[in-house]
Design goal:
The protein has 256 residues and is of the alpha/beta class. It has one domain: Zn-dependent exopeptidases (Aminopeptidase, 3-Layer(aba) Sandwich). A 6-stranded mixed β-sheet has the order 2-1-3-6-4-5, sandwiched between helices. β1, α2 and β2 form a beta-alpha-beta unit. α2 packs across α6 and α4 crosses α6. The chain starts with 11 loop residues before the first helix and ends with a helix. The structure holds zinc ion. The site of zinc ion (ZN) has 5 residues, from loops.
Length: 256
């Protein structure tokens, strides 16, 4: 069979165009490969030093702080006397505000919970109460993350409705805890101007057992009508959170 198309020899010019195209493809490929190798072998770009990006700046930079919103899940904590709102909700609201305040000062923050949950799991080791397992999980979180500080956030209550005012607790014998508690107590009084000014006190709480400065902040009494009203508002919660953060900054400044 004869081809229907006669074979026409290509001109020199046609051959050159073909060759040039082949060379472009070849060199293009080589250039791309070289670029890929250069990118692969290049050292990683330096970490950004821009403020607020990769390297946090501020008086609390370099510190990892554990915030523990008290209670949660099965454990509601105290119940606000007039509204019936559970302590666990208010603790979380203040804690999330506190996280923002501390991060804006350069701290790295870890929360034991970000929603309405407890830290128990099943099966529970025998001989351990649900509450103890919940609390131990919070301590374990602090230990695993090698935190520099622990702040547990709570709301107070008392059968007499006249009791009011924020109060901070630390572990007896812990100098760091006592100083941190004192700084936060002062900051809370200055910022909130409570009717009743309380002093920081030693307290026997499970969450205060670590060797790092640890405090338990009772933000106010939800058994007191006036204070309950305040603590239910986002504005007052933010003021409490900002005051706690200011106390932490003051504590760090004193230690420098
Ligand atoms: Zn509590």
């Amino acid at each position: 069979m004869k081809s229907s198309k006669p074979i026409v020899p290509r001109t020199i010019a046609e051959r050159c165009v073909t060759l040039a195209a082949a060379l472009i493809v070849l060199f293009g490929g080589l250039a791309a490969a070289a670029a890929w190798r250069a990118a692969r072998d290049a050292p990683p770009p330096p970490a950004s030093t821009a403020a607020g990006e990769d390297a946090p700046t501020g008086p609390l930079s370099g510190l990892t702080i554990l915030i523990d919103p008290g209670h949660g899940g099965y454990d509601g904590g105290a119940r606000a006397r007039d509204s019936g709102v559970l302590e666990k909700q208010l603790n979380l609201a203040v804690s999330l505000q506190l996280e923002q305040a501390l991060v804006s000062q350069g701290a790295e923050v870890i929360l034991t919970r970000r929603e309405d949950v407890d830290l128990t799991s099943t099966p529970r080791p025998s001989g351990l109460t649900k509450k103890r397992q919940d609390m131990q999980a919070r301590i374990d979180l602090a230990t695993a993350n090698q935190v520099d500080m622990v702040i547990s956030v709570h709301m107070n209550e008392y059968r007499s409705r006249s009791e009011s005012g924020p109060q901070v607790f630390y572990r007896e014998g812990s100098d760091g805890g006592r100083l941190l508690a004192g700084c936060i107590q002062e900051a809370l009084i200055t910022a909130l101007q409570p009717a009743r000014e309380r002093a920081a006190l030693p307290g026997d709480y499970f969450i205060l057992q670590l060797d790092v400065p640890s405090v338990l902040v009772e933000c106010g009494f939800i058994s007191n009508a006036a204070e309950e009203k305040l603590l239910l508002t986002e504005d007052y919660q933010a003021r409490v959170a900002d005051a706690i953060a200011e106390g932490v900054v003051e504590f760090v400044r004193l230690g420098q």
